[in-house]
Write a structure and sequence with these properties.
The chain is 70% helix and 1% strand. With 478 residues, the chain is mainly alpha-helical. 42% of the residues are buried. A two-stranded antiparallel ribbon has the order 1-2. It has two domains: 4-97 and 305-394, no CATH class; 109-238 and 406-476, no CATH class. It has helices at residues 4-24, 28-32, 34-56, 70-96, 99-106, 110-117, 121-143, 148-152, 158-164, 169-172, 174-189, 197-217, 223-235, 245-265, 277-288, 290-298, 305-317, 326-334, 346-355, 368-392, 396-399, 404-415, 417-422, 425-453, 472-476, and strands at 60-61, 64-65. It is globular and about 65 Å long.
């Protein structure tokens, strides 16, 4: 009997790998691009996972046998990956053939230039650090005082989960707001002049401060966007440089560490009683080995969207209705509302249908972007939605040269790509929108403060040593 799930998975691997190599050419900037990141996430879900499940014969998903839906899930995954690639390459060609038109469309307004020119970087970094401290103050307030610090930094636990449930998502995202603020501002500043030593030092202070909270909680929802934003800011001056072998090794090591975080920061999954992140991480690698830890990622809840889409297909065959917009637009609108006034979310209806309760009662799998589109309109909507998404991901540096609202919005979309592609897409987009608002409010406040005090940063196009910089090469990088 032909195993279509395996065939579709192999096709996803081939298409994804070829498109990734063609798009990145192993250069730093394109590797960090939203298209590159999205493609890697999708291939891990719809390419690698089904092959591993087929090899082990595992088709159990929280008490359900979802083997019947594997072919459908792998098929819509292949459609999603193919459509993403098609949208990306078509948009690239269209933009390349209309350079003059795109240059006019992407030109900054005078208001945008003056907004960033009025912001002092060190002052922005201090505001970012203050934002992280506000997060800490909120945690201590909700947790009942200074004693909660021990529980907070002990990793995932039922006590932590109960406390975090009472904190709005945007408060939990405050460290990301800080990281995005300094990272985006660094990118804008370094289009003309390198940061000086004091500014660079403050940049890293904020980044490190922003990394600590999600690492302590064992949550990668806000850790990965912080890392991506920081990497884009640091790599901006070498955007088109070819990646050296040692950077690939460091990147692979970083990926393995990120994939291990749930196993070393979760009270139920830790292999040691120690709450030390480093000690728990080392113990985990000693127990599982590097390849064991890597394979855990591809068969863990990080890629379980494949199984959930298979279950969704079985549900639809059994008469469960399509979302028809409720799984995407409806959830995006309703997610910010308090549970007490919000109607039952479509995703919770699906969870109740399959597991008897809403999110976390007892389970909370998510469909991912491909799954949400499939839930709303089937394969055709997956093709159309991913085609548009691919087009949006073409030539990302163009968006960062636009006015403040578009540029900040796109950068936030960029750093949240892995979380939105594999996670609760409407919820992540809702959080991202709130992050955009806070970042812009911070920029406008900083601009107003600098204007009132008369403190302006050095002129654009002048280096720390007073020399005029040639920025034509960097502006030409796409």
């Amino acid at each position: 009997m032909i195993d279509y799930a395996v065939i579709f998975a192999i096709c996803s691997l081939v298409v994804g790998a070829a498109a990734w190599l063609l798009a990145t050419r192993l250069r730093l900037g394109p590797v960090l691009s939203p298209f590159s990141i999205a493609l890697l996430v999708l291939v891990s879900i719809f390419g690698v996972r089904p092959l591993l499940l087929s090899a082990t014969g595992d088709s159990a998903f929280y008490g359900h046998d979802v083997l019947k839906g594997f072919a459908y899930s792998a098929g819509v995954g292949l459609v999603g990956i193919s459509a993403l690639c098609a949208g990306y390459y078509v948009a690239n060609e269209v933009q390349a053939n209309s350079t003059e038109r795109m240059t006019r469309a992407n030109g900054e307004s005078d208001d945008a230039k003056s907004l960033y020119d009025r912001i002092d970087f060190v002052l922005a970094a201090k505001l970012g650090l203050a934002t992280v401290l506000v997060w800490l103050a909120a945690q201590l307030y909700v947790g009942g005082g200074i004693d909660y610090l021990g529980t907070l930094f002990a990793g995932r636990s039922s006590e932590n989960a109960e406390t975090q449930a009472g904190i709005p998502s945007i408060v939990s995202a405050l460290p990301v707001v800080a990281a995005i603020s300094v990272a985006f501002l660094r990118i804008r500043k370094e289009r003309n002049a390198k940061l000086n030593r004091a500014e660079t030092r403050w940049f890293w202070i904020v980044v490190i401060a922003a990394v600590v909270p999600p690492t302590a909680l064992g949550s990668r929802r806000f850790l990965i966007p912080t890392i991506i934003a920081s990497a884009c800011a640091v790599g901006w001056s070498s955007w088109s440089a070819r990646i050296r072998v040692r950077y690939f090794v460091l990147g692979a090591a970083g990926f393995i560490v990120l994939s291990a975080i749930p196993y070393v920061r979760s009270a139920g999954a830790r292999t040691t009683e120690s709450t030390s992140f480093v000690e728990a991480l080392l113990t985990y690698f000693q127990t599982e080995g590097v390849f064991g830890a890597l394979s855990q990622y591809f068969v863990s809840y990080d890629t379980e969207m494949f199984d959930y889409i298979a279950l969704l297909h079985i549900n639809l065959l059994n008469g469960f209705p399509y979302g028809v917009g409720r799984a995407s637009v409806g959830e995006f609108v309703l997610n910010p509302l308090p549970a007490s006034v919000s109607p039952t979310l479509w995703s919770d209806q699906l969870l109740i249908y399959n597991f008897g309760g809403p999110c976390t009662q007892p389970y909370c799998p998510v469909l991912s972007t491909v799954g949400v589109l499939a839930a709303d309109g089937g394969v055709l909507l997956v093709a159309a939605g991913m085609l548009l998404l691919g087009a949006l991901m073409a030539r990302p540096t163009h968006y960062l040269e636009r006015g403040s609202l578009r540029a900040v919005s796109y950068f936030c979309f960029w750093v949240f790509v892995p979380a939105s592609i594999r996670g609760n897409t409407p919820l992540i987009l809702s959080i991202g929108l709130q992050v955009v608002v806070l970042v812009l409010l911070g920029y406008w406040a900083l601009s107003f403060s600098s204007r009132r005090t008369g403190q302006f940063p050095r002129a654009s196009g002048v280096s720390n040593h007073g020399h005029t910089l040639d920025t034509s090469r960097r502006r030409a990088v796409r």
